[in-house]
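Hi, here's the filled form for the chain we discussed.

Project: internal
Contact: R.S.
Residues: 130
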Amino acid sequence: MGLKKEEQPAFIEKRKDLPFIVESVDFPGSMFLTTQHIGGKVIIRLNTRHKFYRDVWEPIKAIADRDPSTITGVEAVSTAGRTISALTLLLIAYGKAESMHHNPVDQYEDLLNHWGQFLSTMLGKIKDIR
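And the returned structure, exactly as it came back:
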């Protein structure tokens, strides 16, 4: 699932000024994502072996990359429904993981506030989420 050698320079050039990079990487274990903070950049790696990636992320991306004229209404509605269910489960899994801490409100309240603020700001700066 990596880039071809000739595609790598263009990939790097296009992303060198971004404060974040999201990439799909094959690594063992049950973690869905890892983060790495380097020189003011955040590198987010999604685990292509994780069930969420294989069963949700990949199929959604495949549809997003298709020509719209090749997607049926039934397929679009089905994918949208599955996506909402998967996003709901993603939030529930986060809540469950958070509940493992003896005092989750004190531990994660700032994180959730920052996350919500960043998400709102980022969504406000894009015209097309794609």
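Let me know if anything looks off before we file it.
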